[in-house]
Amino acid sequence: MSADEDDAQLVAFIDGRLEEGAFRAVEARLATDSALRDRLAQLQAGGRPFAPAFHALLDEAPVERLRTSLAAIVEGAPDDQPLRASSTFRVNRLAAAAAAILFCAGIVVGRNWPAWLAPAPEVAAPSNGEHEDWRRAVAEYMGLYTRDTFAEDAAAQQIQLAALGGKIGLVLTPERIALADLQFKGAQILNFEGAPLGQLGYVDAATGPVLFCIIRNSEADAPMKAKAREEFASASWARGGRGYMLIGRLPVSQIAELAHSLERRF
C-alpha cells in the first residue's frame, strides 16, 4: 500500500469513516507497526497537507453507484403505491442512523474537514448559558446509548485515549480515567461549536452507559454541581479552561461521588 493510501486509511480511521472490517484491519496494523503509529500521531497533530489522502478517499467513494441504485429504487416504485416494505425499512434505518450520527458525533462538526484532525481551536470564553448548552446536548443524545454502544478491546482503547488526550491537551491513561464499579469501554472525539469534546464511555452492570465528557472551551473555573437531568443524574465542573461532566442513570449521590474522584485527578 502506498503512503497516500496509508494516509487515506488513517484519515478515515481517525474520522470514524471505516467499515468494521477495515477499522479492525487498521487497528491490527497499528498494534504491530510503529511507523504507522507514528504516522497516525502526525496526522492527528495536523502535521501534513491532507489533500492527497482525501483525493484517494474521494476516488474510492461509490457516489455514482449509489446514485444509480437510488434512481432504480425510485423508478421501480409505482406512482400510486409506496415502496416495498423492506425497501422502506432499509431507507428508514439509514435515515435514523444518519440522523443519530449527525447529532451525536457531529453536534457542530465542520462540513468540509474532519474536526478532530484539525488543530484544536482557541475558543473565546462563552457565556454561562453557552457552557450549559454543551452539557444539555450530551444529556439529550445520552438516551440513544445502550450497554452495547461501546465494545472496544484494550488495544483500541489505548489508541483512542492517546488520540483524545492529544486533542484536549490532557494525559489520559487507563489508571487516570478509571471509575469504581464501572467498566471503561472506549473514547470518542466529538466537536461542539468549534471546541473539541471528548467522551469516555463506561458501562454500569445495573444501569447501563455512563459518560465522562471533557470539553476544551476556555470556560472559567467552576465548582462541581450535581443534579438530576430527567432520567439521568449528572455532575459537572470546570477547571483550567476545560469543562467536565459525568452523566448516567445512577443516583445523584453516586454520580457525585464518582465525579469527586475524577475531579481530584482533573
Describe the protein.
The protein is an alpha+beta fold. It folds into three domains: 3-60, no CATH class; 63-104; 128-263, Phosphorylase Kinase, domain 1 (2-Layer Sandwich), CATH 3.30.200. Helices cover 47% and strands 20% of the residues. It has helices at residues 3-14, 20-32, 34-44, 51-60, 63-75, 85-104, 128-142, 154-168, 174-177, 252-263, and strands at 182-192, 195-204, 208-216, 222-229, 232-239, 242-248. A six-stranded antiparallel sheet has the order 1-2-3-6-5-4, with helices on both faces. The protein is globular. It starts with a helix and ends with a helix. Mean pLDDT is 74; it is low at 47-58 and 80-128.
Quick recap:
The protein is α+β, with helices and mostly antiparallel strands and 266 residues long. The protein is 47% helix and 20% strand.
What is the percentage of strand-forming residues?
15-25%
The helical percent reads 40-55%
Distance between the termini: 41 Å
Q: How large is the radius of gyration? A: 20 Å
- The best one-word shape is globular
* Tally of strands: 6
Write out key terms for the chains shown:
alpha+beta; six-stranded antiparallel sheet; Phosphorylase Kinase, domain 1; 10 helices; 6 strands; 20% strand; 266 residues
Provide the fold topology.
Elements: H1 3-14, H2 20-32, H3 34-44, H4 51-60, H5 63-75, H6 85-104, H7 128-142, H8 154-168, H9 174-177, E1 182-192, E2 195-204, E3 208-216, E4 222-229, E5 232-239, E6 242-248, H10 252-263
Helix pairs in contact: 1-3, 1-4
